[in-house]
Design brief:
This protein is α/β, with parallel strands linked by helices. It is 37% helix and 18% strand. Bound molecules: adenosine-5-diphosphoribose.
């Protein structure tokens, strides 16, 4: 593993243009459960019942019940993995993070170029007038919460059955085509279109490096190599190695 960490650091220095694709495993060490691992979020909340856009339109209180259960995210803090990515950005290597996460932890860690591919659960948006509300400003006592115009608020995350926001989609694909190395961190890589992003990078000639304790459908197919382990441990080690090389 040490060899792979050294290899990743050398490849990052050589590549100069690095993009990271992150998933829920990135925030696991901040205490936020992933979606599909044992004890994951979808075990408790069937996405067909709680996270499909059709459900939102027929029973808008349902997704909000689930969002209420996400309130632990308000207390969650960035972990050493988030902080390491912010540092790799400051060093000038990491150009963009494409995240499937809706928890703002990359931004809290200090990363500035973050593309929220699946939106952000810390915001609500009024379906009538389009006004945005930050989490703390939304009362969840009566569900669904409403705007001051009385319109129903929708959590500003992408539901199953919804399109990826156009700007996030375009920016992500552009970044993937331009990068020379892509770090794929903490995602099971089974939910499309996000799962197709590493392939876009690969086809454009980038080296793809996975960081995950488990194998994924990308391992041995799209990824050039995988560093098997937790993001909160591997990424700080890569930063240490980058500093040694500098
Ligand atoms: N460090 C790195 N990876 C980890 C860690 C960790 N500490 N802990 C778990 N993982 C890995 C798991 O091995 C798994 O591959 O994180 C991945 C989590 O996979 P999922 O639960 O499927 O989460 P994600 O890939 O983010 O899901 C994608 O699916 O339901 C939708 O919208 C939801 O954005 C989400 C999307």
């Amino acid at each position: 593993m040490e060899d792979l960490i050294k290899r990743a650091a050398r490849d990052i220095v050589e590549a100069k243009k690095v993009v990271a694709l992150t998933g829920s495993g990135m925030s696991a060490e901040s205490g936020i459960p992933t979606f599909r691992d044992q004890g994951g979020f979808w075990e408790k909340y069937n996405p067909e019942v709680y996270a499909h856009i059709d459900v939102f339109f027929s029973q808008p209180e349902k997704p909000w019940q689930m969002v209420k259960a996400f309130d632990q995210q308000l207390k969650a803090k960035p972990n050493p993995g988030h902080l390491a990515l912010a540092e790799i950005e400051k060093m000038g290597f990491l150009k963009e993070i494409i995240t499937q996460n809706v928890d703002s932890l990359h931004q809290q860690a200090g990363s500035t170029e973050v593309i929220e591919f699946h939106g952000n659960l810390r915001r609500g948006v009024c379906l009538v007038c389009g006004k945005y509300y930050e989490w703390g400003k939304i009362s969840l006592e009566v569900l669904p919460p409403r705007c001051e115009c009385n319109g129903i608020l929708k959590p500003d995350a992408v539901f199953f059955g919804e399109q990826i926001p156009e700007e996030a989609f375009q920016r992500s694909y552009e970044a993937s085509r331009k990068c020379k190395l892509m770090l794929v961190i903490g995602t099971s890589a089974i939910v499309y279109p996000a799962a197709g992003i590493p392939q876009v990078a690969k086809q454009a000639g980038a080296v793809v490096v996975e960081i995950n304790p488990e194998k994924t459908p990308l391992t041995n197919f799209i990824s050039d190599y995988s560093i098997i382990g937790k993001a909160g441990i591997i990424l700080p080690e890569i930063v240490r190695e980058l500093k040694r090389l500098a």
